[in-house]
Write a structure and sequence with these properties.
single chain; about 325 residues; alpha+beta; six-stranded antiparallel barrel
């Protein structure tokens, strides 16, 4: 793959037929221009003679019409020359944009024609890469409802986006969400989002499959519970064991949103200051008396960026500004 500058010629087709057409059009233009002076002078003479009744008015009118026709013929021939020059220019195929050009899709001597669907080569501009990801409509509704209730706030500007590359590493540059579709895909129940990422080192390639983390809102005073302290009951519901004021074990049904790192975001069932049990769960039963150790802080006063409903992971593929030459 090599770099191609805009307007640089990278292929050429046979030019003799188009050069001959241009020369023919130029010759016809010269012949038409030679008729202008003769018809103009003849029209002037007939105008003088008709005042002396030396010629008929019909002959004078015919002379004027011939002069006008000669001027119109020159304009038509000028357009023909311009058309022939444009067709000759099409034999030199130039890059419509600056970018990296891939392999040639045709060989020397192959037949190409105007309007063909197959490109000769593809030029891709990768300094800015667009990533299309999908987000479920349910997550989008949760996010809007949380914002309406005040539980989640959105910062100024567009949402931040992080990329997880195919090898599991995080792309070092954050992207920005550009727009979201206004309709939901009926087959998947998801909405397509588009984010843009600077790509100065060319690390992101067109067609690469990536995962995206969108930070669309911030949940203030979010409660973060260690994952070791959240278990599931036989019906799949989330539960937690806490120590009450009497140092007795109490079971709580909790509602979790998602995992961030090694902690669950708990939306209900726990409150700041609760003593969550994270060790020895198999040996404890509700109502047992325990001697708690120093508690861990479960409330995160600074807010939890990325904890908003609809923030999480999404998957998509990279794309870029591209042009197909020869189409």
């Amino acid at each position: 793959m090599r770099w191609s500058a805009r307007a640089r010629c990278f292929t050429r087709s046979r030019t003799p037929p188009y050069r001959a057409a241009l020369a023919s059009a130029q010759g016809q233009l010269g012949a038409a221009q030679s008729q202008i002076n003769a018809t103009r002078l003849q029209a002037q003479r007939y105008g003088q003679l008709v005042q002396l009744n030396a010629v008929s008015k019909q002959e004078a009118d015919n002379a004027n019409a011939s002069a006008q026709q000669a001027r119109a013929n020159v304009a038509a021939q000028q357009a023909a020359v311009q058309s022939a020059r444009v067709n000759l220019g099409f034999t030199r195929i130039k890059a419509p944009i600056s970018g990296r050009i891939g392999r040639s899709l045709v060989t020397v001597g192959a037949l190409v024609q105007t309007g063909q669907t197959d490109p000769l080569a593809t030029i891709q501009r990768t300094n800015t890469v667009y990533v299309d990801v999908v987000q479920s409509a349910a997550q989008l509704l949760d996010l809007k409802q949380a914002m309406a209730s005040g539980g989640v706030t959105r910062g100024d500007g567009s949402a931040r986006v992080q990329l997880i590359l195919p090898n599991g590493t995080t792309y070092p540059i954050e992207g920005r969400l550009q727009f979201a579709e206004v309709t939901v895909d009926q087959t998947t129940g998801a909405v397509t989002l588009r984010a843009s990422f600077p790509n100065p080192n060319g690390l992101l390639l067109p067609g690469m499959y990536v995962r995206a983390k969108l930070v669309e809102g911030t949940r203030r005073q979010a409660i973060m519970a260690p994952t070791a302290g959240i278990t599931r009951d036989p019906r799949g519901g989330a539960t937690a064991l806490v120590v009450n004021a009497q140092n007795k074990v109490e079971q709580r049904n909790v509602t979790t949103d998602r995992v961030i790192g090694d902690k669950w975001i708990v939306t209900s069932g726990l409150k700041p200051g609760d003593k969550l049990i994270v060790e020895g769960l198999l040996n404890l039963r509700p109502g047992s008396t325990v001697k708690p150790a120093a508690p861990q802080q479960v409330a995160k006063p600074a807010g939890a960026p990325g904890a908003a409903p609809g923030g999480g992971d999404a998957s998509g593929a990279t794309s870029n500004s591209s042009a197909q030459a020869g189409k």
